[in-house]
leucine--tRNA ligase (Pachysolen tannophilus NRRL Y-2460), 919 residues
Amino acid sequence: MLKRNSTCFQFKVLLVTKKFSRLSRNYSQTFNTASEATLQVELNQLDKKWIDKWSSLIPKEHPHSINPLKFINQENEKKPKLYTLSMFPYPSGMLHMGHLRVYTISDVLTRFNRLKGFDVIHPMGWDAFGLPAENAAIERNIDPSVWTRENILKMKEQMKLMLADFDWEREITTCSDDYYKHTQKIFKLLYENGLAYRSKSEINWDPVDQTVLANEQVDEEGRSWRSGAIVEKKLLEQWFLKITDFATDLNKDLSLLEEWPEKVKLMQKNWIGESHGVELTFKLTNGNDEDLIKTFTTRPDTIKGVQYLAISLDHPLTKKIMVEDDALQNFIKRAEKLPEDTKEGYLLSEIYVKNPIDPLHNNIPVFVAPYVLGSYGHGAVMGCPGHDQRDYEFWIENASNQPIIKIIDPSDPNIKVDVNKPYLGKNGVLNQKAGKYQGLSVKEATSQIIKDLESVKLGQKVTQYRIRDWLISRQRYWGAPIPMIHCNSCGIVPVPDEDLPVLLPKVDKIMGKGGSPLSKVDDFVNVKCPSCHKNAKRETDTMDTFMDSSWYFFRYLDPKNTEIPFDKLKASNQMPVDIYIGGVEHAILHLLYSRFIGKFLHRIGYWDSKMNGEPIKKLITQGMVHGKTFINPVNGRFLKPEELIYDSSETSPRIKETGQEPLVTYEKMSKSKYNGADPGKTIAKYGADSTRAHILFQAPLTDILDWDELKIVGVQRWLRKVLNLSHRISKLVKTETVLEKPKILNQDEIKLHNDLQHYIKSVEDSFTSTSSLNTVVSDYMKLTNSLISSLDSSKVSLALIEDAFLKLLIILSPVTPTVSEEAYEIYCNNLNKNWKSVLINQWPKLEPVIESDSVNYSVMINGKFRFVFNGKKSLYKTQDQNEILKEILYLKEGQKWLQNREIKRTIIKPKMISFLVNT
Ligand SMILES: [Zn+2]
């Protein structure tokens, strides 16, 4: 333990002099704290400097790489693999704030894991097929491939400027034929395994974009996710993928996804919609044995209350009757345009069905109703207006003159149910209208009714799913052609593997909307049948772009393979994706399709999996970035930046015209709200490090981030502190001849040591288990401040400070690589050391925390708290009053309150020392 110079200490308080020797460790207190002002680094100038310097350390074949660590360390084979992936962007030509957020998260995690010794796979590519490119091409009359390529180049450059370190050697572009060749192969595999089929089916038609939409692309209001138009129903021959074949596994295996957000799993669960119920058969009263309607219900207990059946617009019975029923034909035409939740129905005259449990009840009417989906169940539902809200509403609309029948009463007689309203409760008792089931509880009735149905062979237990097969046909140009040929003699014939890819033909002008653009390209359409060699026609639909992105994470592992989509061994070794980062808006569509294709490829032996073909182990969904939005309080109008004027403090603007203060909110960025922020401009103004640290610091990563550029100064102030600290420390180290770590640490040294261990551990935890990247930045700031106070106190060994500082530079390099490097270069230059990139390092090893033998005592003088004294814990045990006084009088505070005073009494408690003195 440190020995303090106590030679001048005299026991008598009155004799205490001012000659207190301030503890000096191995360096002298001569540095100049004013140097802070002398260093005014332009943080935005560091980006170019360091990108150039790093490039000089990276082999020339990797012009877009910026992290030398990956190339310098040659022992990658021995390192554990870690696959980190962020959702690839659509190449619109411009990174937006959402991209900046997700790629910053992905980049810092990757840089951290590389320092931790992982061989990280961190690829990037382009989700390049799809409507925006096609629409842009039509508007500007340019080739979508040219437009896409130009945009990719721009965005690649922007990613470099944000210092995102991707494995560009793995880059893929879904619209290149060397990629979609394999998308076509996977389609063929699905077809060969009976999972791709063509069916004439009711589809969602977007009247604005003139294309078919998947169910997932229609929102709750029945509008297109892209154009916003009310979606219409049409019957078209379409390609489907049988995702329903995997519904059981997709539902069950959600339990394997322990590192997925619960919210996303719940959304998937609801989408898959597994329900257990009974399949029922209703026989037509006037028909023969084949005339029956199958339906599904989760409430067999209500079967005695059935008052009608409703069948879909494309039910076989509907089709049969409509041939001779003009009114029905007209109804169906009209119904295609009705919203999904419409209550309209068409009563089929003279058609009745029998209740399967009660054949005497044989006058149940049948309606054709748009609310019944052809693809769910059997396209028919039983209607119990007495016990189902939707059935009730339908009944009121279509048969209001007939009362509803209720066969279940609440078990609790105190619950009163309006006689004209349905009873929706599930805890009830069947009443006399339920005939022989009277008196049974819902649960008892359910099992008895299932038994009875089974005995007459008119019902059986089944599991039903809400999810429907994936419609992948698109009548658009810019997508992967479906590799199929229609032959009059042979039917549908797949394009042989050796003829893949089916190239998307170049066209002078995309025809725009309506029908398949490819159907107008004769050279493309007319083809010989691969089987009989007669004239045949190609399929002219292209694939949904979600098909391209459903398997891309496999391709990254083997991006140059010209023969097969990917090598089995590579996929088996490196899948699943360890960390997948992207927006929660992909919680259903993309992730569900990816799980489906991952499971399919596993099922057919394309890769080995320990998670039943699940492709993604951990999922991180980052929140959206909202923009600062100014609104005129008088008329509610959004204000443009040029309509505002800022005062000198630049924080609170006023409206130029009126001088009023605008309302300030944060909302989803959009052109109409003038609240967009351009990541490129922010980086150019503040530098990449400040922008990255700011975007992480402002909100927990799953929360919405309110982007306020003005707050970035806080991060900048901290980064300048780090650079200043490098100057101060290196100048001191330079003047020091002996620089050794003390064998025994004093209290301040213990504090710095423990702070360092604490923050390394905390940052590490945030990067690994908790993903709380906002606290990472605040931990950096706290450790920086701890170093500054250690230096200022001059009680801490310089060797310890130097060591802690160099470790700080390593641990902050994932977030702020240029400041780390700059600070390290300053240090090296001042010490005439050779600079070697700080990125080429290992994450600091944690050392044990040193148990401090000191404790903070509150010092009370005459009953009043005056200051805190950090002294040995043993003082309480020994009650050594002389020792205490001696220690306290080293402190300025101690001198202030006790010097030249007569101490009458000293009381020592575990955390408090109280002096009674004469005033
Ligand atoms: Zn043929």
Notes: The chain has five domains: 13-24+853-917, 77-177+549-622, 184-232+469-546, 275-463, 625-708. The chain has a mean pLDDT of 88.
